[in-house]
Amino acid sequence: MRKIARTPSSPLLSSRRGLIFGTAAAGALLATGCTSNESNDESDSENKQAADTDDKKPGKKVTIGFAGPQADHGWLNAINDQGKQRAEEYEDVTLVNTEGSNDTAQQIGQIETLINKKVDVLVILPADGKALTRVGLKAMRAGIPVINLDRVFNSPQAYRCYVGGDNYGMGLNAGHYIGEQLKDKKNAKVVELAGTDSLELTGQRTKGFDDALKNYSNIKKVARQSAEFTVESGQSKMAELLQAESSFDALWNHDDDQGVGAERAIKQAGRDEFIMVGGAGSKHVMDAIKADNTVLKATVLYPPTMAASAIDLARALGQGKGVSGLASLEIPASLTLYSAVVTKDNVDEYLPSGFS
């Protein structure tokens, strides 16, 4: 798995102890800490309940500033919802949200306002990681720990902890799933509908996908188009792919939002000779996978629950509070969520996490 972040070397922040995971992770840590190799469901349940109660027990009050881009995309809207809902679970957390902006200068101004308000911790999902590195550094130098969410800053000194999805792993898992579906087909052809090429994450997703396909000598990627994570761009770029390739066996689409447009183009073209794999985990796609009556057969998760994890970590930093079951005294430099593949076989398990 790719290392995304290192511990920053800034001396301006004092050492903070502990880590608060989501309740499910805390329960898992406690369960694996048992000395017996035999399962004890009742004991595990009691331990999990105790961890849940202990984690949410009110402590030192913490004000968390939350700044992200404009929520003009289903996944970004889910990020905002996850962060807000998680903060509401804690009596000791006050969440201060910015309006959100895709304009880097405006987002920098919003974050500087949070710095001037002297919030205890900042959670920042930058519209552009490179462009906002400076304001991350400014917060850290002001003694405000930064949780960098999803789009990473250029310098590890601009954040205390990075929380995000595994973009390389997302492509890797999509490629392996498609590879297994086509491994017995001679001269199989796949196409890729990528996201915005100016974003580093898009390149990571494509590299993971290409690396996975190297394991299948019978499969060749014959075309790739880059869309812009929007319904409109997904439709237009998918139409181009369909026109350029008279037939193929599988499509990987990086993003379920732009996938809505891709589905429209596919339907208009009357094509159904291939399987389609989505990316991110929208409820719309999960419903289609469950119904099993379209080309959509799977999606690779990029969980917006990372925002809830960021709130957990921000609260931990603000309180210097730990959780039993974790040996390290410090929160990690990075937390990367796994990109599970959702299919008809396991979709019921993931449906509750599907976003609109």
Automatic annotation (TrEMBL):
Chief location: other
Location of the protein in the cell: Cell envelope
Similarity-based family: Belongs to the bacterial solute-binding protein 2 family.
Signal peptide: none
Basic and acidic residues: bias regions: 45-57
Periplasmic binding protein domain ranges (all copies): 64-321
Segments for region (Disordered): 35-60
Record Pfam families: Peripla_BP_4
Transmembrane segments: none
Assigned keywords, A-Z: Signal
Taxonomic path: Bacteria, Bacillati, Actinomycetota, Actinomycetes, Kitasatosporales
Protein name: Substrate-binding domain-containing protein
